[in-house]
Amino acid sequence: MQTKNLIKNSENIYNTANEILAKTNAIEIFSKLGKVEIIGSLRLKLMYRLDIDLVVISEKIEKTKAQKITKQFLDTGIFQTVTLADYQTFPAYNMPLGFYWELTITHQNKNWKFDVWYLRPEEKYTDMFLSSIKKFESALVKNPEKAEIILKIKEAYFDGVKYKDKVKSVDIYTAVLENGVNNVEEFSKTTNTEV
Question: How would you class 29 by CB atoms within 10 Å of its CB: exposed for 0-12, middle for 13-18, buried for 19 or more?
């Protein structure tokens, strides 16, 4: 896809994501648990995949509240999938201590996925999510041309659902905005991955 089309595609996905947020009342519902922050590609306005990343921050995270919110999403009848994972009671290696939702909704014949974490402010991943996103936002303000490079790498690594070779969006942002990677080939070499 040409750069102009990648930018336009990202803008279209961004606008649709905001329509879905409005349609589902997701931010309003999650606000019952704590402060909701939009993170990831939606926050940076650099969308390629059909996903919405949120983090809900609360001094006290409670299983009963998480279950109640899960039931509320089930009761709306608009989600294809409503999954709640409890990493607070059942910690997992390299995962935040909290609760995680995966919500799937079909919109305009396409499946969209929400990834939502419910965490305490002092949880290490909370700080990582928020400090990283602020750092990336600042770097994009200073270097708006980097948006094109990021979208080209996302396109090159997209496998239809996720990114190839376990590449994550944060890897792409870090490479381009912090490590000076300027194209797909450089990203491939610095990450030892194949396009």
Answer: middle
Domain boundaries, the chain: 3-122, 143-195
Contact residues for 57 (Cβ-Cβ < 8 A; gap 6+): 34, 35, 36, 37, 119, 120, 121, 126
**CA atoms of 125 and 122, how far apart (whole Å):** 8
- Residue position matching structure tokens 């998480």: 66
Question: Which pLDDT tens digit goes with each residue over 146-170?
Answer: 999 999 999 999 988 889 988 999 9
Average pLDDT, the chain: 95
Top CATH class of 3-122 equals alpha beta
Strand duo 81-86 + 51-57: pairing? unpaired
